[in-house]
Amino acid sequence: MPEGRLLLLGDTRGNSADSRYRFEEAEGGTVPLSAVKGALIDEDDPLVVGLRPAVPVGGGLLFLGAVSGVVALRLRRRAVTAATPMADTVPVPGF
Fold first, then answer.
1. What's the mean pLDDT when you consider all of the chain?
2. From the CB of residue 30, how many other CB atoms can be counted at a distance below 10 Å?
3. Which residues 6+ apart lie within 8 Å of 59 measured at CB?
4. What are the residues whose beta carbons fall under 8 Å from the beta carbon of 90, sequence distance 6 or more?
5. pLDDT at 12 over 90
6. What is the dihedral of CA 66, 72, 77, 83, to 10 degrees?
7. Is the dihedral of CA 20, 26, 28, 34 positive or negative?
8. Residues 21, 27 contacting (CB under 8 angstroms)
9. Per residue in 50-87, pLDDT tens?
10. DSSP string for 31-93
11. Contact yes or no for 22/10 (Cβ under 8 A)
12. CB 15 within 8 A of CB 6
């Protein structure tokens, strides 16, 4: 790896145009450090620390929503089944 240059890897899609795509170009597909714009997020960053407890809460809400959906479907099926008349209570013409 040349000094002052970075090898960039994108996602796994074939069209990410990262350093693997540009490997045949000069400097082996690397880019100069000055061309990269971004910020390093430290583990003690307030945003990361603030969002850390939100992950389990979001998972719990997702689980609660799934359970509520299943319960609602079962209650609706019960209501529809109770509202339909039974076969022995329907008058049959001609008998």
1. 76
2. 19
3. none
4. none
5. no
6. -170
7. negative
8. no
9. 777 888 889 999 999 999 999 999 999 888 877 766 65
10. EEGGG----PPPTT-HHHHHHTTHHHHHHHHHHHHHHHHHHHHHHHHHHHHHHSPPGGGS--T
11. no
12. no
CA distance 69 to 8: 43
**DSSP structure string for 8-33:** ----SSTT--STTTTTTSGGGG-EEG
Structure tokens at 34: 């000055």
Q: Structure pTM?
A: 0.38
Distance CA 92, CA 13 (A): 64
d(CA 76, CA 5) in angstroms, rounded, equals: 62
